[in-house]
Write a structure and sequence with these properties.
By secondary structure, this protein is α/β, with parallel strands linked by helices. The protein contains twelve helices and nine strands. The strands form two sheets. Strands 1, 2, 3, 4, 7, 8 and 9 form a seven-stranded mixed beta sheet that branches. The structure holds alpha-D-mannopyranuronic acid (MAV). It comes from Harenicola maris.
């Protein structure tokens, strides 16, 4: 039993259709963020689809840490039962999973939608389950990641040697190194201070999170590299899932898929709106990156090499072909 889960005592899991269960979730953000709204939607849908009573104990504002902490909790089956997290924060246990959110993977929102509405990511899901005991029960995301920096970055010359934070997966650092930047992996909750104190000059993120965590206060320059459309799995600890009665497991899977669709529509449609809100409020200055297409050419060999090293060249081709 995980810390977040309490079963009615004296009832064998298989003998009752309805049990009282508490599931604990974690969000790094407040109620306004798409991830939080998606997890609230998930809770609502589970209770709609299930005869028993499920209590959702969703902890907000990073109360339970950041995604790298959630990863350990989920893998061990303690403290957190479900959350939404970046594949590139799950590389520690599953080297292949960051393939699904590496920069420049998707051409546009249609491509991203087509891939996430299919089962093309299945082999990556299987590895995550096998190696980390974490289940993907739905896909949300849909924010577009751009560069965010203290000083403006207009082109490759400015990017050269730019000290920036990236997520923990080695492929993230490899890609930004190929773009001649100087990336380092820093925990998300240290980024604000690291920019403020000059340890790094910037990072990359999507509008919803920039706005929610007020990163514009230390890095007000946004460069529209549009290098990633985010893929954010809704995940549950395998240890939690296996303890649920079968009909609740079915409700969780259905609710996860539906909440994912809800979250994708929400964040992708809010992305430009949120950027504009921050521009209008004088919080950010936005500019295009000169010769953005050149970036794509520079990262293709890195993507290919990474996929080859995982024995996933066919998978990468299948994603590209969606
Ligand atoms: C954004 O807040 C989200 O995409 C989140 O899932 C990531 O972990 C975070 O950025 C990050 O850059 O680590």
């Amino acid at each position: 039993m995980t810390l977040g889960m309490v079963f009615a005592t004296g009832l064998a899991a298989t003998s009752v259709a309805a049990q009282d269960v508490t599931l604990r979730g974690a969000s790094m953000f407040d109620e306004q963020h798409a991830f939080t709204k998606t997890m609230q939607k998930f809770a609502e849908l589970v209770n709609e689809n299930y005869d028993g009573e499920v209590t959702f104990d969703l902890r907000l504002n990073g109360e339970l840490g950041v995604e790298s902490d959630y990863l350990t909790f989920l893998q061990q089956g303690v403290a957190v039962d479900y959350t939404i997290m970046a594949p590139s924060n799950m590389a520690k246990f599953s080297p292949s999973i960051p393939l699904m959110d590496m920069p420049f993977l998707f051409r546009d929102l249609d491509h991203w939608n087509a891939a996430l509405s299919s089962d093309v990511m299945k082999p990556l899901e299987e590895e995550l389950l096998e190696k980390a005991d974490i289940m993907i029960i739905g896909y949300t995301g849909g924010g577009t990641r751009n560069l965010l920096s203290k000083d403006p970055i207009a082109n490759l010359d400015d990017l050269n040697g730019h000290k920036m934070r990236v997520m923990g997966a080695p492929i993230q650092a490899q890609i930004f190194s190929a773009l001649t930047a100087a990336p380092s992996a820093i925990a998300y909750n240290e980024v604000y201070n690291a920019i403020q104190t000059g340890v790094i000059a910037g990072f990359e993120n999507e509008a919803a999170s920039i706005q929610n965590l007020k990163f514009y206060e230390v890095a007000p320059n946004v460069t529209l590299t549009r290098h990633t459309i985010t893929v954010r799995p809704i995940v549950m600890s395998g240890k939690t899932f296996r303890k649920l009665p079968e009909d609740l497991q079915a409700a969780v899977l259905k609710a996860g898929a539906e909440a994912g669709t809800f979250g994708r529509e929400l964040e992708s449609s809010e992305d430009a709106v949120k950027l504009q809100e921050m521009i209008d409020a004088g919080q950010i200055k936005v500019q295009e990156f000169e010769n953005r297409d050149q970036l794509l050419e520079m990262v293709l060999p890195v993507q290919n090499e990474y996929a080859n090293s995982l024995g996933a060249a066919d998978l990468l081709e299948a994603i590209r072909a969606k």
